[in-house]
Amino acid sequence: MATALALVEAGVDSLVVLEAEPKMAAHQTGHNSGVIHSGLYYRPGSLKATLCTEGRNRLMAFCAEQAIPHEQCGKLVVATHAGELPRLEALEMRGHFNGLQVRRLPAAALREYEPHVDGVAGLWVPETGIVDFRAVTAALARLIQARGGEVRTGWRLTGVRNEPDQLILQSSKGEEVRCRFLIACAGLHADRVARLCGVDPGVQIVPFRGEYYALDTGARGLVKNLIYPVPDPQFPFLGVHLTRRIDGEIEAGPNAVLAFKRAGYRKLSFSPRDTWETMRYGGFWRLASRYWQTGLGEFYRSFSKYAFWRALRVLIPTIDVDDLAPAGAGVRAQALAPDGALVDDFHLISAYRMIHVLNAPSPAATASLSIGSYIARQAMEQAS
Q1: Which CATH superfamily is domain 1-68+130-184+363-384 in?
Q2: Residues 20-42: tens digit of each pLDDT
């Protein structure tokens, strides 16, 4: 949607957005934590770091212009033991490199920001915020349509014919769309769409499910804003954390477990095709050989509420297991390289009359307006 808006604002006079599901934001966008990320974690100079900083500022302004409820509430990153202090210091330096007003806090100051947290030190990151990205998506769609673009839902791509002067897109309903240029932002099916178009994606999407609990109403006072652990730099997930959503609910999570279905939001969701594609991919087994212990721990936490609770108690000791109620889940479309490397940065590839977005992990929602402009510029140059 952000790419489409950037294109119509640049003067493209004929544009259609094709959405496979009957509603917008049905997958990653509608199942994420609602955090407007600061850019704290990303390697300085990377596409993620650059586009997150620009995108965060643009998103805040966009929400204000469109009267979308949002808040720049800040977050606290907590080191819970001395062994995490070197990583906290490295994170602080990275934050400064990325232009953030990060503040290092001693243990005694942590409770000024989060009265119930426990730790030996922390970082206060004021640039972090919260929003409902479904509302952002709906606003983007309204603006696209107001500027002459079209949005079609329930339009699932099944085939692509590449002719000398156009691409012919075919749907599951037998419909066709003829276009001069295709931009594929297909998320969980990005690699499949690339192959439909005759493009080798070079990576495979491996789905990881993140599961959440919600604090019951009586326990919401334990969390003011956002509380994160110090992340493991060897792993792309941030660990179990606590997030206040824009509606006031407090979410705890997520874990990160291998999903056996690309849109598998339940623990027992299973797709033979999706599972077979993951299991036959050499890159998955190379990843598993390095992280099997971490993976087993995540699966244990998936099926054990007590294990999840114990992870949270490290941050807030006064949380009780009965304060937690199962909440939603999301599935991350993680691009995995053949050598087993988890693709960390945004990853786009170009082909004749096409751009394919093969990896757009967090902070993709935060950076959506800047990513959309970045892709639109590439498309305009390539199509001219």
Answers
A1: FAD/NAD(P)-binding domain (3.50.50.60)
A2: 999 999 999 999 999 999 999 99
